[in-house]
Amino acid sequence: MAAPTVRAAGGGRNVAQRLGTLLVPVPGLSGTTYPAGTQVVVRGQGATVDAFVNGDWLPLAWWEYAPVRNTTPEPGSAT
Description:
It comes from Pseudonocardia bannensis. By secondary structure, the chain is mainly beta.
C-alpha cells in the first residue's frame, strides 16, 4: 500500500506521510514532552523530519524515531 500524501500548505509539493514511534522523549512545540513509545505521524525524509502528535509539531532527528512497519499484508502477497 502506498503511503498517503498530503499537499503542503500554500499548494507546495506533495509530501509522503507515514507512522513512526519515538525512541527517546521529545518536546513538542506546545511544551509537552512525549515519552519514548509515542506514535507520531512523520512527514519528510532525510536527517531531520517533521512529526506530529494530535497537531503538535515535533522536529525530529533520524535517531529519535523508528518507522512503524505496515503489518497488513499486501493483496496477493504470500501469508
